[in-house]
């Protein structure tokens, strides 16, 4: 009994923690629930790059993500769709024309020399930009999931975005325009630095770019001024050039950008450089808008479906399986709370297919309990004691529960790996639900059942198997 009391305490603690998480961390809603715009971009090959590989698509996706961030959209989704398309979901954006203007077109990568006497001004402008970006992130975290923004919040959001644009323009004006653009950059690669644990990014120009790069680096070498790297007129890096290159510049068209980069920071810069170097235009092939009112209606209908389905399952279990069914209902409520809390903790974006996956996982959770209870009834009818029957029911049903859940998880992995967009949301919510359902069925339901068996008033065979009025004596127990 003491062991089951400890398990009961753990389950109670997990349930309370789940309630706290649900109340403190808001649920992220997808485009179909919150409203907004969804665009599908077609990446078009060129004579220079006739075949699109995963490397090219990754670089283009990085450029598009940077442009999405420029829109000031919180919880936007940019993901690859097939071999040559990108799916962009912009919750809360109801002006698809604006999104199309910003996201369309070819990336513009430029290398510029910093103007003399602007060293201190660059530090100030960069700090101001970081403050505006932090202010924007803080404001986005408070935006409502559904519904239109009030006038004051919308005005504040527009003001911050304007300030960020002003900062980007001010920083851009601190650098001299040049002819060295992304079409002259042959490649970029992140790699470990020769010394220490830091990383660096090596860049390689073509012949014409090598000449222009040598001239640019000669003009800033040893001056304390940086060589600005701009992507879509936004400064992404401004490395300095050592004084040893003051006479000739960096010749050969090959250089390393260092600065105590972490692995991820170097990788991000590599992808940004390659994205700006690719002469790959993108075309909008689909532009769809979901209104906030449709999202609210979808939420209400989904909640009604989930609640009605859950209520019907609870009633069926209580009526058909008696006491075990009532205890399974309690475990099912615990399961629903734990799953919801995990969604919020992991930042799962809930969509309509995601809600469908969650409701389906409720059925999977009940399925495990049904297998256990039917096994228990078989053991009772075979003449075993109540305790042995319940114990045997869990033991004998475990292999069937494990097999069914593993096959479902394999399907979820396949859908998540090969699917895209809403299909991934369905697979993720269903997969998480299946894992948590196994935990609640094999621990929560088991703990509640054996805790109840420890009380004499609950040891009535008819409460476990209708029609069975007596149990065999202990001496007759197999």
Q: Topology of this protein?
A:
Elements: H1 2-24, E1 28-29, H2 31-34, E2 36-43, H3 54-70, E3 77-81, E4 85-91, H4 96-103, E5 109-114, H5 119-140, H6 151-172, E6 175-176, E7 185-192, E8 199-205, H7 207-220, E9 227-231, E10 234-237, E11 254-261, H8 263-277, E12 282-290, H9 292-346, E13 349-350, H10 352-381, H11 386-418, H12 422-453
Parallel strand pairs: 1-13
Antiparallel strand pairs: 2-4, 2-12, 3-4, 5-6, 5-9, 7-8, 8-11, 9-10
Helix pairs in contact: 1-9, 1-12, 3-8, 5-6, 9-10, 9-12, 10-11, 10-12, 11-12
Q: Could you please describe the fold and organization of this structure?
A:
With about 475 residues, the chain is α+β, with helices and mostly antiparallel strands. The chain has a domain at about 1-30 and about 290-475: Multidrug efflux transporter AcrB transmembrane fold, CATH 1.20.1640. Helix content is about 60%, strand content about 15%. It has helices at about 1-25, 30-35, 55-70, 95-105, 120-140, 150-170, 205-220, 265-275, 290-345, 350-380, 385-420, 420-455; strands at about 30, 35-45, 75-80, 85-90, 110-115, 175, 185-190, 200-205, 225-230, 235, 255-260, 280-290, 350. A four-stranded antiparallel β-sheet has the order 3-4-2-12. The protein has a four-stranded antiparallel β-sheet with strand order 6-5-9-10, with helices on both faces. The protein has a three-stranded antiparallel β-sheet with strand order 7-8-11. Helix 10 (about 350-380) packs antiparallel against helix 11 (about 385-420), helix 10 packs parallel to helix 12 (about 420-455) and helix 11 (about 385-420) packs antiparallel against helix 12 (about 420-455). It is elongated and about 100 Å long. The relative contact order is 0.13. Residues about 475-478 have low confidence and may be disordered.
